[in-house]
Amino acid sequence: MTAFPRPHRDDVLIAVAGFLGGLLMWSLGLDTHSDQGFEPRSLALVPLAVMSGAELLRRTMPNTSLAIGCLTMLADQFTVGNVATIAMFTDLVYAAVLYGTPAAARRIPAVSMVATAAVTVTALVIYQDAQAILPGLLFAVLTVVPAWTGVSVRTHRDAAEAAQLRAEQTALLAEIDRTQAVTAERARMARELHDLVAGHLSAIAIHSTAALSLDDPKTSREALGVIRENSVDGLAEMRRLIGLLRDSGGDAEPAAAPTLAGVDALLDQSRTNGASSGLECTLEDTREAGLALPAPVELAAYRIIQESLTNALKHASPGRIRVALAQDERTLTVRVTSPYGDRPGPRAPGSGAGLVGMRERVALLDGQFESGPVTNGDGRKIWQVRAELPVEEGNRKA
Q1: Are residues 137 and 260 in the same domain?
Q2: Is residue 62's pLDDT more than 70?
Q3: Residues linked to residue 285 through DSSP beta bridges, in sequence order
Q4: pLDDT tens track for 376-392
Q5: Are 158 and 183 within one domain?
Q6: Per the omega criterion (within 30 degrees of 0), is the bond before 40 cis?
Q7: 323: part of which helix (H) or strand (E)?
Q8: How far apart are CA 306 and CA 26, in angstroms?
Q9: Which of 9, 15, 58, 227 can pair with 95 through a Cys bridge, CB separation 3.0 to 4.6 Å?
Q10: pLDDT tens column, 123-151
């Protein structure tokens, strides 16, 4: 069973006010058809009561209330009439346009205009007098005016709702952009923090383990020296990163980003850190001299080499680590290979964040990245990290 819609509070007030107002006019003898002598006068209260009841549905069932109102107005013509009944009918026309369906909002004004024209023409034909236009004007006041008033109010209401919806969507998009920006910045900071300190901490972990496991004063002193060097360098890197974060909103000059010119220093550090593990490092740079690179590409290449050397220090078996750089008109290719297989001695634990960070850096530049074990020319397995970075913007002489 369908529940009857509960009237809106304002509709109840309108219905009660209309009925009481009409009752007061009837008691004072203010009838609209008093000269026609309809009896008994109390019949006028029936259309008044029905029209008041229709007002209760003006918002919840606007089309139904208008249909009841039209029939009630027709019945009211056979009584002495009441101004309140007429006034409530005009409100029903207005409400049907304002609260009804979009189709009803389009049809009711058109139908009211056609009906007004029909009433006017019919009156002129019957009475053959210019005063016959007055019924048409009265009909227009009762139907056309409230209908088009409803159209105007509905148009402004829809425009306000659309503007509010656009504002909410704009705010939502702004919040999404802010969230994405914060997430991207956090990911960038995580990559930078990992790349800055992972190598130093890995060297510290490996050499501290070696110093604890080997009862050799000379080996322990060498390990402690490497530990101290990496701890000091790592602390300096951390201070630099913290300084960048604190001064990001101020006037401090930004620190220079590392470039491929510093790869030699990276290899020297890796040779020192990996000497006890039997690791050697070589660089093969076949790039043409004088070619400049976009700063994001150069930073990404530097970090990929740095993280690859760190991973080799953690996991590679004794042997040679090879770093190769090549560049053509469109692409900078970075390739780092290291021995693959079980290794003796201490190993630093890995989290997998390094490979994720490298992949993210390459993806941000629309490049290609691959990593994993491959077979070299002599049939031995090696671990390879290979990145191709687009460099169209940097293909120019420095």
Answers
A1: no
A2: yes
A3: 325
A4: 777 788 889 999 999 87
A5: no
A6: yes
A7: strand 319-327
A8: 96
A9: 58
A10: 888 877 777 788 888 888 889 999 999 99
For residue 109, the 8-state DSSP code is H
Count of domains observed in the chain: 2
Q: Could you give the CA distance from residue 47 to residue 68 in angstroms, rounded to a whole number?
A: 10
Rounded CA gap, 335 and 362, in Å? Answer: 13
pTM above 0.85, yes or no: no
Q: For 215, phi and psi rounded to 5 degrees?
A: -90, 65
**By residue range, what is the domain housing residue 130?**
9-166
Tokens of 250: 């101020």
Q: Give the residue from 166, 197, 232 where a domain finishes.
A: 166
Q: Is residue 143 within 8 Å of residue 93, measured between CB atoms?
A: yes
Report the residue count for the chain: 398
Strand-pairing partners, residue 370, are: 386
HSE-up of residue 376 (Cα within 13 Å, Cβ side): 13
Q: Are residues 162 and 182 in the same domain?
A: no
Q: Is residue 153 part of a domain?
A: yes
146-200: pLDDT as tens digits: 999 999 999 999 999 999 989 888 888 888 888 888 787 777 777 766 666 666 6
> Residues 139, 184: one domain?
no
Percent of the chain that is helix, strand, coil (3-state, to 5): 65, 10, 25
228 is a domain residue:
yes
Whether 77 shows a pLDDT value over 90: the answer reads no
Residues 245, 144, single domain; the answer is no
Specify the pLDDT at position 395. 45
Beta strand 319-327 with 331-339 is antiparallel
Name the 3-class secondary structure at 221: helix
Q: 249 and 376 share a domain?
A: yes
Query: 278-329, pLDDT tens digit by residue?
Result: 788 899 988 887 777 888 888 889 889 988 888 888 777 888 889 999 988 8
Rg (CA), the chain: 43
* 2, part of any domain: no
Segment holding 333, helix H or strand E: strand 331-339
Same domain, 114 and 89: yes
